[in-house]
């Protein structure tokens, strides 16, 4: 619900004249609050009031812009406002701020005291829907955890039931391998012998090559020595 300050226009005008304009300042403050409230603006009004009081020509700007805001916001809520930014500007330029205040106050007085209640109801309804959605998601998560737990228990039960079978299969496989142990041992000995023979052949070939290289180097040295002796 939008908090709107309502005032009796005749009484406000009379008090303003009797107080030499002092009450008019307070009245202006209430109108500033109303223009903020209708926009759902909760900021303080002090800065605007100081500008209205002490800044020259700021009131022209304020009445023009706020008159436009009031008209637009009234239209959004299904109300028609007599406020007109151009009229407010002209009245303010000629020093009739008090008339502009009376016109704007008349518009605010026409607003229903339940203005904005529908928005609050929609907000509460949406909040309730969000809570229901969150609750549904939590229920789904809870159900998923329970299903996951059941599946893990089934898997564990299967493992426990299958363990004797797996152990027996492992023992049978070991027994079968043990029966072929002699064949495996023969194959291993033959493979080992082949490896040793290959290693011995490679070593003999290496030694033969070294001997040939040694003989070749000796022959070169002998030929070289013979050449030197002939000279």
Percent helix, as a range, is: over 70%
Structural class per helix/strand content?
mainly alpha
The span between the termini is: 130 Å
The run of helices and strands is HHHHHHHH
Radius of gyration: 52 Å
In this structure, how is the largest beta sheet organized? none
Inertia-based shape: elongated
Beta-sheet strand percentage?
under 5%
Q: Unreliable segments (pLDDT under 50, ≥5 consecutive)?
A: none
Question: DSSP helix count?
Answer: 8
Task: Tell me how many strands there are.
Answer: 0
What is the mean predicted local confidence, pLDDT?
A: 83
Structure description:
There is one protein chain. By secondary structure, the protein is an all-alpha fold. Among the domains are: 106 residues, no CATH class; 51 residues. Helices cover 82% and strands 0% of the residues. The chain has 8 helices and no strands. The mean pLDDT is 83.
């Amino acid at each position: 619900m939008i908090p709107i300050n309502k005032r009796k226009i005749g009484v406000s005008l009379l008090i303003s004249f009797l107080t030499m304009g002092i009450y008019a300042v307070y009245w202006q403050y209430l109108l500033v609050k109303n223009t903020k409230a209708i926009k759902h603006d909760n900021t303080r009004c002090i800065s605007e009031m100081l500008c209205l009081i002490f800044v020259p020509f700021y009131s022209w700007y304020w009445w023009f812009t706020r008159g436009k805001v009031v008209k637009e916001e009234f239209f959004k809520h299904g109300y028609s406002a007599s406020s007109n930014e151009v009229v407010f500007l002209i009245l303010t330029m000629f020093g009739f701020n008090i008339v502009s205040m009376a016109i704007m106050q008349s518009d605010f007085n026409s607003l229903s005291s339940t203005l904005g209640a529908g928005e609050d109801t929609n907000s509460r309804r949406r909040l309730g829907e969000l809570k229901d959605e969150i609750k549904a998601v939590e229920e789904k998560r809870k159900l998923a955890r329970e299903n996951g737990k059941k599946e893990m228990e089934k898997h564990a039960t299967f493992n426990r039931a299958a363990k004797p079978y797996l152990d027996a299969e492992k023992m049978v496989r070991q027994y079968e391998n043990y029966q072929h142990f002699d064949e495996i041992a023969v194959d291993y000995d033959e493979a080992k012998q082949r490896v040793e023979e290959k290693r011995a052949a490679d070593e003999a070939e290496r030694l033969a090559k070294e001997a040939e290289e040694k003989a070749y180097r000796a022959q070169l040295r002998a030929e070289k020595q013979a050449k030197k002796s002939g000279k």
